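the two lines:
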Amino acid sequence: MSQTAELKEREDKLQGMGTSLLRKEDAKFIRGQGSYIDDIKLPGMLFGAVVRSPYAHARIKGIDKAKALACPGVVAVLTADDLKPVNLHWMPTLGGDVQAVLADKKVCFQYQEVAMVLASDRYAAYDGAALVEVDYEELPAIVDPKKSMAPDAPIIREDIQDKKEVGHGPRTHPNHIFTWEAGDKAAADAAFKTAEITVREEMLNPRVHPCPLETCGCVASFDKPTGYLTVYMTSQAPHLVRTVLAMLSGIAESKIRVIGGDIGGGFGNKVPVYPGYVVAIVASIVTGVPIKWIESRIDNISTTGFARDYHGVGELAADKDGRIKGLRFSALADHGAFNSHVSATKFPAGLFSICTGSYAIPNAYARVDAVYTNKAPGGVAYRCSLRVTEAIYLIERMMDVLALKLGLDKAEIRRRNFVRSDQFPYTTSLGWTLDSGAYHPALEKVLKAVGYEGLRKEQAAKRADPKSPTLMGIGISTFTEIVGAGPTKVCDILGVGLFDSCEIRIHPTGGVIARLGTMSQGQGHATTYAQIIATELGLPAADIVVEEGDTDKSPYGAGTWGSRSTPVSGAATAMAARKIKDKAKKIAAHLLEVSEGDLEWEIDRFKVKGNPSQAKTMKEICMVAHTGNLPAGMEQGLNAVTYYDPPNLTFPFGAYLCVVDVDKFTGEVKVRRFYALDDCGTRINPMVIEGQIHGGLTEAFAVAMGQQIPFDENGNHLGNSLMDYFLPTAVETPKWETDHTVTLCPHHPLGAKGVAESPHVGGIPCFSNAVIDAFAHLGVTHMDMPHSAWRVWQQCNTLGVNKR
Amino acid sequence: MKVRLEKAFPMPASADAAWALLQVIAGVASCMPGAKITEQVDATHYKGTVALKVGPASLSFRGEIEVKSLDASTRTLHLFAKGTDTTGSSAASMDLTARVDAQDANSCSLAGDSEVSMSGKAASFGARLMGPVSEQVLGQFAANFAARLKQAPPQAGAAAPAPGAAAPAPEAKPLNALALAWAVIKGWLRALFTGKRA
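prediction for all of em together
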């Protein structure tokens, strides 16, 4: 065997970074042997069902439990009054506000939690819940956030009516939550005053819901003799939840164990702490038996973590060549009845200030006003690193609006404004330092791949032909994401910094167990982290076990959301592995009787420079580390733990192009082609990345084309079942063409960036840009999502293009 | 979720006979598919129930009816009904004005103008069907009302009979979902082919 072949064989055996190792976790899932919350059955367990409000806004005049208590199987009915003695009828939210655990005298959104019925089984609990009689006095509801701050608007939150602030600065109205600003307003205003061209457009990111396949739920088990609380729950952030539970309950954090188990999709929906969890926990503490609470689909869509609901206004100022001189973006944010929007303390509007996108914009100002309405609380969810989707939607749409106004090509307007490769690191006018990027090459690669010139020619021909039954649209999105929260100097939740962790233990025969503070919900962590360790330590990925989600086992971390796992925990994994490698090197030097400086690393071993036959494999070193044959003073073992505080966020980017054909007569939008080029730096497992991109694009398609949570004027939810809510299947989903470039992240130990959210963030404006481009020659500058056939047909009909 | 319905139905009896029947709230209620008066609280207040099954939503409303006014000079009844689903997951209210318009000795017209407002599960699930369902319910109501008029025409010009004096109400049955669905589809098809979208 030649030397290179031998090296390749050794490398292949590791299945390390860069290989498309099949996902280690899938063996159980494809056999139907995952273990989800609802699979957990503990002896003596009771089931809790939640009684919910039919009204969006009402006073509770009385609750009669008698009939429910008489129902066979029902053990107890808990209301706010029952939680008061333990002071758990209200709870703090991850957004600095408080939220009613069970409605206290008043309900503020439809389906709000009013009571929980505990019964011997699920059916008895639901039967009992139907018998709880609640006497309501209906109040006028605020559904439109634009009416929230009207002088005569009904006050939604009487509990904080007189508070001057709720966690994020002064309030100007009882229904006002916060106003957040970034950038230099005076400079931006000045740029607009002197600009040759200005454009302005209002655009809505409608309220949507990530709708993970598994709904939220928990099994809470309090052991009275020991005082230990164990909670199995659907949580993307088990450690943060444990901290919140300790703060809430007064139980020592060391006596609380939160276990994530397998999670059937999260997308941000499973970050917050929901009332159902808290009531189940209190019920277990009170009754001393385990309590299970599982949401129905309707509960999930109508009450837990929704996304978006940003009513945006975008303004750009430019010179006549299309070079942007100023940006002013604002949004009215509908946060629902409680501000449970998960946000880093210093970023109440999330990372909205990434709204300058991939462009060099010298003057910018952004502002978000958040208000209460009589709708479910939330706003953070959906495959988006805290309001990045809203920000990127605005800038990517506004680039098209500006191009249209100037008569410029939509690729050209981007070329003229991109941050150039030689400008990195580039600090934006809203304060982010984009560490790396190569925007021009990415766009050119995509344009070449799809034959952009040809597509535009075809479009021009179609536009000139009145007999064409379709309108053709081409959408471009050249986005920059901001993921991997984040540096503890700027990012914390409830005071806890957003670092993350990895602990690695190596056993004598070379088996490895790695435990992390993150929590996979389908991202393939068991595979990706194992591959990092495989490459770093030269031990096969097959023998590396990854464990997450059990707070008793894994070191503290902020969990998995905002594409932070690879940027933060991936880095922690590499750093922990390198600590072990340093120790291994000392052992190797000791065994080979050379100095450390004489050793070099080769795939899975240390060898003596210039004498390759003298080498020690990592596997050999693992055994030696557990013997007495060690350098003087060295302890046994090969273990390490790292807490990684990232110096910056990571900025993955991409260039997407979408071609649609719109049926003039039915309004149906057919996606002819979608080409997605992503740059996430070092690619650890290309297949896992591809899967994440497919998933993110499919969810982008869902949002752009059909998802929306509508309400009527009384605050009735009009789309909380899968009969109404659009979840695309293989039937509707277009074919995705993927591509990539690699621009390393300079501050990440592996050069990697997050990726899972990029396709969602970049995909949504790409679809919108394509649909609107189909109408651009008819003077249309914007159409709000979702671009369902009905809504697009209305546009066709208004313009009269559906007349033969 | 609100829907407003204005409808008039021909009745095979004199205006006075129809007006006499209209004032018997228990009798009127029993013409409503699935509805029943369970208690008369006082001269103008009643309690009752309505059972309704539409697709996945099975609803059993209980609530109160208040007779706001009875105007003999215009033969107009104004009532307000509101109720909650017994499972507490839905609520509904109806503001109804019903008027009898004379035509000739043996026929008249019953005109109804109602605003129905729904919340909760009924609104979530039933929204898209609410218009056509309400129309069908009203249609069935009119048919029952007409049948009752034929069956036991009250004396023309008679004063309003005492509450409870009407013939015993037929047993309230939940609205038949299948028949209702068929009627809705028929109505929709008819509207489609006459170019009048519901």
